[in-house]
Specification:
about 210 residues; mainly alpha; Endonuclease Iii, domain 2; Endonuclease III, domain 1; 2 domains; 11 helices; about 55% helix; elongated
């Protein structure tokens, strides 16, 4: 790891701490899995509003597996792509009940074989539930990693691969948590607050203001 990367991570740790935080409310691994499926193209805050009632109505995985599609669609209607998400949640819950005895699997291969679960969702589960070192590439991570010069790629899989080479394993999960906070408070997609940024002197971004 280069000196500059080390300094960037040190400043992130100093600014945001090293605690593992999950912004999606959940009490069980399967609840987190469903919340992450719902969170695609949607804010965590909106998902948390919906799951507050959703997880009371469907308080077991079996209830999701046996849910009526049109009823579940209405329950999650305020979330984008609700038709697809409802279909995937029911199919995913059925697989978990029938093939995994209600347990959420831990390997990338098993997780990505579930309906509605891509690599990003799988890595959220692996990081938050199983503490498996994994890098979650969302819009904040992609944008800011490019600005910091950690990657030149847009494809999430390539960004993930680049970050694995640049970042030490003990920061893989942490990096995403810190970057979300950083992206929401300072390093916006438009009009980033460069003058208030603690990385201003070592940032390589052409978007600097």
């Amino acid at each position: 790891m280069g000196k500059r990367t080390e300094e960037i991570l040190r400043r992130f740790d100093e600014a945001y701490g090293k605690e593992y935080i999950c912004y999606l409310n959940h009490e069980t691994p399967w609840q987190l899995l469903i919340a992450v499926i719902l969170s695609a193209q949607c804010t965590d805050a909106r998902v948390n509003i919906v799951t507050k009632d959703l997880f009371q109505k469907y308080d077991t995985l079996e209830k999701f597996a046996n849910a009526n599609l049109s009823e579940l669609e209405q329950d999650i209607r305020s979330i984008g792509f609700y038709h697809n998400k409802a279909k995937n949640i029911i199919a995913c819950a059925k697989t978990l009940v029938e093939e995994y005895h209600g347990e959420v699997p831990r390997t990338l291969e098993e997780l990505t074989s579930l309906a509605g679960v891509g690599r990003k969702t799988a890595n959220v589960i692996r990081g938050n539930i199983y503490n498996e070192p994994s890098i979650v590439v969302d819009t904040h991570v992609k944008r800011i990693s490019k600005r910091l010069g950690f990657t030149k790629n847009d494809d999430p899989y390539k960004v993930e691969s680049d970050l694995m080479k640049v970042l030490p394993k003990d920061h893989w999960i942490l990096y995403n948590i810190q970057i979300i906070t950083f992206g929401r408070s300072i390093c916006f997609a438009r009009n980033p607050k460069c003058s208030e940024c603690f990385l201003e002197d070592i940032c390589k971004s052409k978007d600097k203001r």
